[in-house]
Amino acid sequence: MPSARLIRSVAILPAAALAAVAAGCGSSATSSGPTSASAATPAVVLAAASLTKVFPEIEPAAKYSFGGSGALQMQIESGAPADVFAAASPKQPDALYAKGLVGKPVQFASNRLVLVTPAANPAHITSVSDITRPGVKLVICNATVPCGDYARTAFTNLGITAAATKNVVSETTDVTQVLADVALGQADAGFVYITDADAAQGKVHVIALPAQAKPATKDFIAVVKASHNRAAAEAFIAKVLSSEGQAKLRADGFGSP
Length: 257
Known about the structure:
By secondary structure, the chain is an alpha/beta fold.
């Protein structure tokens, strides 16, 4: 289950910034529906596991729950309390938007899928084609998680779906589990985002994917319509989209929206 981090205060942005974000998210602090408590109350943010490091750097005063985007989508559909949803793919926010459960999703960053091996690389993997060799132990995210969807897209684009899938020994519920399995040597290779690989600080070896394999990895964010703290939700998104928030995303390896 995702864990939550609670810190006491939240930044309040200028009214103009809030208004701009409200328009982009298809909601406003004065719209009908659940009303805002106060922007002084921390926003509850459900976010993709790949954002575990950078989001608290952007806004330490929020209450976070990180996990697989698919699982977080299900939590929102089930009525879990949340103010903001941030996913590593447009699919989950778009599905919730279609159901009227979130405001219009906005892209706030991009990422890059890479192949990683244990630092010692005992299977001597030097390219993506090596993961099709018999006996290679491969770990990927399950299909409901963006990192798993992106990996399968790479397989399809490279024409290696059958051979690669045959070597999958584990499917995880989020990208951090893939990274841990590979770093600990429980698998010979796995697919993660470059931001996660960089955060591993030398515990894994990174192999770039060929151009034709690369899926479009995009991160989207939206206000949860059932939010009881709309002002804090909009303030949080405004901070992520601000020049300061974008600079912190770039510093952690994320690309521009």
